[in-house]
Amino acid sequence: MQCQELCDRLDEKLNTAAYADVDPSANGLQVGSGEREIGHVAVAVDAAVETAERAAAAGADLLLTHHGIFWGDAERLTGRQYDRVAALLEGELSLYTAHLPLDGHATLGNAAHIANLLDLEGRDAFGDHGGRYVGQMGTLPDPLSIETVVRTVQPHLDTGGHEIRVLDFGPDPVLDVAIVTGSGADFVDEAVAAGADVLITGEGKQQVYHEARERGLHVVLAGHYATETFGVRAMADLADGWGMDTSFVECPTGL
Asked: What is the pLDDT of residue 179?
């Protein structure tokens, strides 16, 4: 499949254009020619030198990542950005990136897959980011302890050997769950306002401890990387269904 056709399909599936004004990431094709033939797609969470080198070693033509190389109004290709682009060019790899569109997608997104693990019912979009949503919220089929919630999702999260941290300040048992993967600690107030008993996210900030304690909310810090492997894996499944070879480049950070 030509690279441009693949990118057009991905853009349409993820509705990347809808996030153009709110996402600092340059979503879509970041490096490469639209005319190139793509037969093998590698997916990874991060566009880094290591993931590019390993994707190239696997025989990939395109690396699809959640975190890309170009953010904001990049005007220079120097330093770390240069090194990463150089690794792509040396490996003859194109790069496609889907950041917030892959967080908020109702079925393919990172939050959606964690909601699937918990069989959440009555799901709705959650995590308002400039008028676009980057997470999901729903209700457990039955009330569970926060420990059971963690045990349910933990086997599916590549935490790099690190334990999932829990700020245990909410009710027991829990029923309503809000999810924003990656760096979602800023959504404590929104979770409380929505009636959530627990917020599942990736990484925390210093202030989230007191915010959660004062608002009576559990916060599960399951790891930024660990909570964001689901979306790129879903993209690999899409590419596989479109007749391409696929591979997942595992590079857990433990963070």
From this structure: 98
Which sequence spans correspond to the domains of the chain?
A: 3-98, 103-227
> Which H or E run contains 122?
strand 121-129
Query: Measured in whole angstroms, how far is the alpha carbon of residue 129 from the centre of its chain?
Result: 15
What angle, rounded to 10 degrees, do the helices at 110-117 and 146-153 form? 120
Using CA atoms, how far apart are residues 74 and 83, in angstroms rounded to an integer? 15
Q: Which helix (H) or strand (E) holds 179?
A: strand 174-179
Fold of 103-227: 3.40.1390
Q: Does the domain spanning 3-98 belong to CATH 3.50.50.60? A: no
Least confident of 51-60, 68-77, 142-151, 222-231: 68-77
Q: For residue range 150-200, what is the model confidence (pLDDT) as tens digits?
A: 999 999 999 998 899 999 999 999 999 999 999 999 999 999 999 999 999
Copy the structure tokens of residue 204. 């925390």
